[in-house]
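Exercise: predict the fold of this chain.
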Amino acid sequence: MSGVVLIAVIAIICGILLSFASVIFAVPVDEKQVKIREVLPGANCGACGYSGCDGYAAALAKGEAAIGLCSPGGADVAAECSEILGGGAVEMVKKAALVHCNGVCGNAPSKLVYDGYDSCKAASLLFAGDSGCAFGCLGKGDCMAVCDYNAILIHDGLAMIDQDKCVACGMCVKTCPKHLIELVPYGQKTHVLCSNKDKGPDAMKVCKTACIGCMKCQKTCQHDAIHVTNFLAAIDYSKCVDCGECAAVCPKGAISKGAVVPKSPEPAAEQPA
């Protein structure tokens, strides 16, 4: 009986000590951090630049991060976070993912028959992939596999993104082994749909719509929004007014004009017998 009493006394003492310890060593809870975390969508995609929603919430509560970095949450989440932190209105530019390539099968034919694991990452290890263009989309669907919003499909050998479904989580951006995908302003219609950095003649050998670095777009732009570097044009979206003049002068159709999703080339008309 004495043994049972002894164990009971020890248990009571341990319970008291644990109670004191929980008070003494308790980690203060930041109420702002808790409220912000409840507001964040919980995607843990890392598009904000932090490890996940917990990390971003902690950084916001400490004043170490900017409001409005949560792309999946959008403007509504940015406004709620601003209200919790006692800030004013936050202007947030909605973004969506875009594939900088127009290498559909008719534009960039395959250079070899790939019969390995159906993955862009795996295919890229074999002579930079089976696409004729070493810089182009491989169309194996790695980006589609990581998209939780059904915003990506593979059509005619090319990844295409439905920007209305895209929440700009950035998972596809991280996954693409060719680094072809970028988060761009939603609604922007003028884009360079090419990533080939070869000289013009070499680029044209592997894709019909490759940028040839001719500089016509750069010379035409009145807003200093497009520049050619390493034989490839790139748009500065902070300066671009979406006028489409660069697309109009591009001799190879490497710049989109109104269409976000690239289209397959029209089939050649049949010649009369």
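Check your answer against the key: The mean pLDDT is 87.
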